Amino acid sequence: MPIYDSPNSLSNILHCRRQKLAKLIDFPVVIWAGNTTPRNFAANHFPFRASSHFLYFAGIPLKNAVIRLEEEKLELYIDNITSDVSLWCGETYQREEIADFIGADAAFPLTELETHLFGAATIAVQDPATWTQQSQLLGRWILPLSPPQGIDLELARAIVTLRLIHDDEAIRELVKAADISVKAHLAGMQTVKSASTEAEVRAAMESIIIANNMTTAYNSIVTVHGEVLHNNKYHNPLHSGDLLLADVGAETEMGWAGDITRTFPVSGKFSSTQKDIYDVVLAAHDACIAKIRPGVEYRDIHMLACLTLTEGLVSVGILQGDPANLVERNVHSVFFPHGIGHLLGLDVHDMEDLGDLAGYKEGRNRSDLFGLSYLRLNRSLQSNMLITIEPGFYQVPAILNPARSKYKYLINWEKLELFADVRSIRIEDEVLVTNVGSKVLSADLPTDTSTIEEIIIS
Amino acid sequence: MPIYDSPNSLSNILHCRRQKLAKLIDFPVVIWAGNTTPRNFAANHFPFRASSHFLYFAGIPLKNAVIRLEEEKLELYIDNITSDVSLWCGETYQREEIADFIGADAAFPLTELETHLFGAATIAVQDPATWTQQSQLLGRWILPLSPPQGIDLELARAIVTLRLIHDDEAIRELVKAADISVKAHLAGMQTVKSASTEAEVRAAMESIIIANNMTTAYNSIVTVHGEVLHNNKYHNPLHSGDLLLADVGAETEMGWAGDITRTFPVSGKFSSTQKDIYDVVLAAHDACIAKIRPGVEYRDIHMLACLTLTEGLVSVGILQGDPANLVERNVHSVFFPHGIGHLLGLDVHDMEDLGDLAGYKEGRNRSDLFGLSYLRLNRSLQSNMLITIEPGFYQVPAILNPARSKYKYLINWEKLELFADVRSIRIEDEVLVTNVGSKVLSADLPTDTSTIEEIIIS
């Protein structure tokens, strides 16, 4: 467990989080870490990932452990490993040592949990073996895909309140994740010219993450077909005229996520059409970041991105008309069909396991409008929130085809054909809201075309 | 789907596998691919891995698909993706195109499956959402951790019969996996001298796998503490006197696994004590491989490894007595507590999802003896079986401590102390049983200390 500089600091942080939680709720809380999930057979499992809520209050990824919080107290429930397991998996820390390390007030074997559950709220974990156990022990369904009810809902709201606003330790971890994500992207840029497939660039990027003893926070997107928005294949060959879109983020050992996207030319040189559109997207990116400060509505940032992108597309001649009017008609969504970003924390879409509880302020709901409906965050920004800003431009056949009649005159279809070498561009940075405005955690990674070209060629 | 050289070859292979299956059973078979498993929230899932039995009979990793085999016929059940999904995930192949590609005789949406299940046998998949569905649709419990019963057991036995003996296509895939695994190990050796942590060596190895658009077949072991047998941590710093144990294998896009282990010195130079023990392990490795041919009992290969290791440890002075007698007293298990290897195929421990059905010949059961009890394969070898040979030497505190009294005079404990810099050595190769003997699929990766030293230094 030589993870934090001193166990003392970890137990202080966790105590502080419990204090804040205790101010919001007056019932006990039990949080499960979850267990490994089998891949092709039981012993060949996916790498263990503790549930994010557990990581927030327990600090370290303990397999098959449970914590119970009541007022400011912390109890740990975990079984010591048997001697047979220790033969294969090595000596590990005993329950009391772990309890000491995280500052638990008491520690018990898992069998004791059953008698300490009265009146406790919980949050569903993702792995079915554990949520089945949660449901059985608590005597009610605890399902990861169903909205929480009663005290579980109260708990979820309280946790959202805490996790929305990152404390110093969270920010330290998030900075670490951002730093390694930046290094991964630099490695990607430095490899693209000599690589012959997407997979080779992905390897260069992920090897930085692995070498730093981190994992990817999500399945990387590294593709010359970024217009397939969730593209987790890496088999395409790289051609000289292609733009490569890389959406890759590192996750620290404690579970905190990075999330950065860059789009760069395989040849090392943007074509003039690619540069034109890139600069439109970059203008939206920069305009949004410039507006970020406490009190600003994230939805307004999204709408600013839509307007700035539209202005840019008008100026290059792809759109025709008054930008504000075009945005009103939702024309931008043809090329920018997703939201401007999301919360970032222990999850790459932070707390998305709770549906829109974290992303949407109470009383607000998703829009029905295409494009805006995919906005994942609709709240007023507060200091120490971490959000992404990720405008993009995509030529998605499934969107363009119906748009040909719908927006026959607002889009200059002939002009658009000149931009056939711009299938997809996204520029994504991580932005921490601060008291005075914002701080870009991924600022060490350049966004401008000339510096990116220099990195690739160098 | 541009995966196989020609769709025709894939459909022929699959037809051939169905023909063989139809000779063994006379009831219909339904095999589920399974679905993705969520990591920290539903949309952030682990990379999809289709069930191995599905991959064997469907050839390609189709998410949430089902196949039905009856006599030589193949039916595919899969839903076309909706336009909303295609927006995010791109255009994909339609049901009929996929059916055509794999040579299915008919294709249906998933809703049709329910009416085609009468009398069908199946195999449990790993992901709970899918095995719950299997159980509901078939009206009986289909659990991955419970032994199959009735026709499901008959099916499992028939599949074991097929999958034990690899066909040409399987061997082609296994050779691909072995080749990339070899390259990964070479990269590891070439990195170890300049690396400062285990994680950096792991990164060099896995980046080869990722760059070739493959995945790891299991969680890599890359550690200076190989005496922790299942070590999936990579945080240890590398010191000049350390031996690094790397157990890393690639898995092809179609799911076929590689599995190789090498142990090499961080400094590039084995110490004399390390070389002494390494050569003992290598002698066992070579002796076992030399004996492999059809008709040989794998258990005898295991016992040969025990004897050869014991002879070597007697000659270096760690064990005292007659080697055959020492093996009879199970002294070797103090330093070699696991089996000599296992089946390799679509799973790194092939068909371990079926318990010991594949590994152990009908009527044979696991031994109670420490060490031998971990032998995963106890069958007579046949041509086109692929097995691993992986003798090792480990100083596991949890085993050595009780052995101090049990084997007080048979182990020269003072002498053993001189070998403190040899915490763990394992040498593992993949061996294909052939008509005339065997072929080592990982033969391009050297095993001898001097060539390994040359690779590291070069």
TrEMBL record, chains A, B:
Catalytic activity of the protein: Release of any N-terminal amino acid, including proline, that is linked to proline, even from a dipeptide or tripeptide
GO cellular component: cytosol
Residue ranges occupied by any Aminopeptidase P N-terminal domain in the UniProt entry: 9-138
Cofactor(s) it depends on: Mn(2+)
Pfam families per UniProt: AMP_N, Peptidase_M24
SMART domains noted in UniProt: AMP_N
Coiled coil: none
One Gene Ontology term of the molecular function aspect: manganese ion binding
Keywords of the record: Aminopeptidase, Hydrolase, Manganese, Metal-binding, Protease
EC number: 3.4.11.9
Enzyme class: hydrolase
Entries under CDD domains matching the protein: Prolidase (cd01087)
InterPro entries (UniProt xref): Aminopep_P_N, Creatin/AminoP/Spt16_N, Creatinase/aminopeptidase-like, Pept_M24, Peptidase_M24B_aminopep-P_CS, X-Pro_dipept-like
Alphabetized PROSITE patterns for the sequence: PROLINE_PEPTIDASE (PS00491)
Keyword Manganese: yes
Biological processes per GO annotation: proteolysis
Family: Belongs to the peptidase M24B family.
Name of the protein in its database record: Xaa-Pro aminopeptidase
